[in-house]
Write a structure and sequence with these properties.
two-stranded antiparallel ribbon; 9-stranded parallel sheet; alpha/beta; TIM Barrel
Length: about 525
């Protein structure tokens, strides 16, 4: 029974509206591909490295096919054809295109049956590597175990991957369960993935496959030392969303930030590009066993957290439904929300508790990701520490899945090792002393907490039904999420979106749809 006395019929109404919205978007998505999706296919096949100008080979090959006017048929067809015609590996094909000795568009085409047979053979082998990574994670979890939920999630962000390793290991020893390596500022807006280990990020460290590998090895090492599996998180949002999802799957990341709307609203990435990219990226995340984190917390830092609560819930419903259509199970949906109401608001704690409990009841199987106060941090470290403590209380009282710890030095500087240590110690204290507190309390039926939850749910359901009536893309254009308006043809990356040709083929999409049961869902 709902502690907040939420109406199950109203929840069902909201979910039905979100499902209808997702169905409409899915039809739009499946008619299109993007340069990022096609680059991801090549990365999954093992194409890596850069040319003489440090342009990643997947970019070189996809741009080559785009210029040749054939990309709408899918990069796989032409690269696999070259494998059959030349006897070279996919990596060698990429290198030959880069040095100008091979034109994929001029090679005679083998039969499509022959190309697709070869493509499925090589794609199956590539997916086995990811399957093995998932099995290895399961083995670690069985042998070492992990901390209880809420997982303690902390950030490292020095800009230097090797310094990040030092800080990450320290945080793990102090009690962190998830280490998130923040990306360098602006990486989400560059239309390629940097290559190799990096040491000069700004406000974070570049997300590269080599950096993923370095941090994964470091966390496995410290996990063995302390007898607890440490999860690794990075970001597969932005213009390279599916590529970074693939890199994360290959290097055994455990958590990735991935949202259907975040890039559109908060990074001004074209909506068509984002919607297509998130679909394929989530299929990869699902197969790899990666927990995604969505970005609804950003609504609450952009606009008023009290007013935007229904938008957060509506976005959670939509993210849930789009994730299901990518084959992502609820157990891997770290739907986001945040403790972002003004600390000067009377009874603000009650409203925050209401919102968190409501999310937990509506999405009972999701490992919800709860974000700390940031917008109203002032630099007063003592007040900030109290705000973070109240946030931690709500997290454990409502059984959140992932607790991104706040730092008392938020709004002053990037956290130092001792800042992180204090935050972890405080969270461990609250979590242990209040572990079962949520099970011991009930909410007053006619009280403020219950009334607030019912009001937010009612408004979210009405908003979802309005969005269904006018269309999701139109709703975004009108600024119905976080007061941010975006258009179909605006934003970054539209030039990288293509309508699929009738003979378009993505071998990994074909295999993943079968693997994740999406063909059965479509029928």
């Amino acid at each position: 029974m709902s502690k907040l006395y939420l109406d199950p019929n109203l929840i069902a109404r909201a979910r039905t509206a979100a499902s209808d919205i997702a169905d409409s978007l899915q039809s739009f998505i499946l008619e299109r591909t993007t340069v990022a999706v096609e680059r991801t296919v090549l990365r999954l096949y093992g194409m890596d490295g850069v040319d003489a100008d440090y342009v990643p080979l997947p970019n070189v090959v996809v741009d080559h096919l785009k210029e040749g006017g054939v990309l709408e048929r899918g990069a796989a067809t032409f690269v696999l054809n070259a494998v059959l015609q030349t006897g070279r590996t996919i990596q060698e094909i990429g290198e030959a295109v880069a040095d100008g000795t091979l034109n994929l568009c001029e090679l005679p085409l083998a039969s499509l049956d022959e190309i697709r047979k070869k493509g499925i053979e090589l794609a199956t082998a590539s997916l086995e590597r990811i399957r093995a990574n998932r099995a290895k994670r399961d083995e670690y979890l069985t042998r070492l175990g992990e901390g209880p939920q809420p997982y303690i999630y902390v950030i490292v962000a020095t800009g230097n991957i090797y310094e990040d390793v030092v800080q990450a290991k320290a945080a793990a020893r102090q009690g962190a369960d998830i280490i998130a390596v923040i990306r360098s500022t602006g990486q989400s807006l560059i239309d390629y993935v940097p290559y190799g280990a990096t040491t000069e990020g700004f406000g974070g460290t570049y997300a590269t496959q080599e950096n993923f590998k370095i941090m994964r090895a470091a966390l496995d090492e410290v996990g063995e030392e302390i007898g607890r599996y440490i999860r690794l998180c990075n970001y597969c949002s932005g213009l390279c969303m599916p590529e970074i999802a693939a890199m994360g799957a290959i290097e055994r990341l455990d958590v990735m930030l991935n949202d259907a709307l975040y890039g559109i609203l908060f990074r001004d990435i074209n909506m068509q590009r984002t919607l297509v990219d998130q679909n394929f990226s989530r299929m990869i995340n699902s197969f790899a066993g990666v927990i995604i984190n969505t970005g609804e917390d950003n609504y609450l830092t952009t606009a008023d957290a009290v007013e935007q609560a229904p938008s957060v819930l509506a976005s959670q419903f939509i993210n849930e439904q789009l994730a299901l259509r990518s084959g992502l199970p609820e157990e891997q949906m770290g739907l986001g929300h945040a403790f972002e109401m003004s600390p000067d608001l009377e009874d603000g704690f009650l409203l925050e508790l209401s919102q968190a409990q409501m999310a937990r009841e509506i999405f009972p199987r999701a490992p919800l990701k709860y974000m700390p106060p940031t917008k109203h941090m002032t630099g007063n470290i003592f007040k900030g520490h109290v705000q973070d403590t109240l946030f931690n209380m709500v997290g454990v009282m409502t059984n959140q899945g992932i607790q991104l710890l706040g730092m008392m030095t938020e709004a002053i500087h990037t956290p130092l090792i001792h800042d992180r240590h204090i935050a972890i110690e405080a969270a461990k204290y609250v979590f242990k002393n209040m572990r079962n507190f949520g099970e011991e309390i009930e909410y007053k039926r006619d009280g403020k907490i219950v009334a607030r939850a019912q009001e937010v749910l009612n408004d979210a359901a009405a908003k979802l039904e309005e969005i269904r009536d006018i269309g999701m893309l139109e709703a975004i254009s009108r600024g119905m999420f976080a007061d941010v308006k975006r258009t179909m043809t605006g934003g970054k990356g539209l030039h990288g979106v293509f309508m699929r040709a009738e003979d378009y083929w993505n071998p990994f999409e074909t295999l993943l749809r079968a693997e994740l049961g999406l063909e059965a869902m479509a029928r």
